[in-house]
Design a protein that fits this description.
With about 210 residues, the chain is α/β, with parallel strands linked by helices. It has helices at about 5-15, 25-30, 40-55, 70-80, 110-115, 170, and strands at about 60-65, 85, 100-105, 120, 125-130, 135, 155-160, 165, 180-185, 190, 195-200, 205-210. This is Lactate utilization protein C.
């Protein structure tokens, strides 16, 4: 008898006294969780997002849709970016004002090749105010997960208000769990046993977030 057979046998034995008409697990367990903490206006929710993003050492900018191309161009220039990685579905006008060479995401690019590119610009799927978290799901304006993990500088554009929610439960209701999800709370960082913080170990060293709306 294999370990699998042994475990399944014990599960069946434990369920022998369960009535056939018993409620299924997903109905029997109450899931009336609180969807958010407190009551906030939309403006307060966006302010909370900005505050928590900054608390995680992300650099937060605000602009309207018309000012987005100029802001992106300025941020890339200030970073000294000569080449920027672009997801295939990124709106073309976002980078229309930038002088940086735009490099399209390609499946055949190796991590070493991606590491030579200074910056990446993406959108996001949803942003969570209470945790200061950006969620990417590999959508057309975000590209594959690795393009947001290898370059040292990531600029993420959040559309306000449609992509901002208060809480993680609200975010989960918006995303498809079968998609490749990346949850980002600030730039990549870790610390050793003496709590010396090191950034850029397993993701971008610098994260800039633009709240555009």
């Amino acid at each position: 008898m294999s370990s699998r057979d042994l475990i399944l046998g014990r599960v069946r034995a434990a369920l022998t006294d369960v009535p056939a008409d018993d409620l299924p697990y997903e109905r029997a367990v109450q899931r009336g969780y609180r969807q958010e903490h407190g009551e906030r206006t939309l403006a307060e929710t966006v302010d909370l997002l900005a505050e928590n993003l900054a608390d995680y050492r992300a650099i937060v900018h605000r602009t309207d849709e018309a000012g987005l191309p100029e802001l992106l161009a300025r941020l890339l220039a200030e970073h000294g970016t000569r080449s920027v990685l672009v997801p295939r579905g990124l709106p073309p006008h976002w980078l229309a004002a930038s002088a940086a060479e735009q490099i399209q995401d390609r499946a055949e690019d190796t991590p070493r090749e991606l590491d030579r590119i200074a910056s990446v610009v993406t959108g996001c799927a949803v942003a969570v105010a209470e945790t200061g978290t950006l969620v990417l799901d590999g959508g057309p304006d975000q590209g594959r997960r690795r393009i947001t993990l290898v370059p040292d500088h990531h600029i993420c554009v959040v559309r306000v208000p449609e992509q901002v929610v208060s809480s993680v439960p609200q975010a989960l209701g918006r995303i498809d769990p079968t998609r490749p999800l990346t949850w980002i709370s600030g730039p990549s960082a870790t610390s050793d046993i003496e709590l010396d913080r090191v950034e850029g170990v397993h993701g971008p060293r610098r994260l800039e977030v633009i709240l555009a709306g």
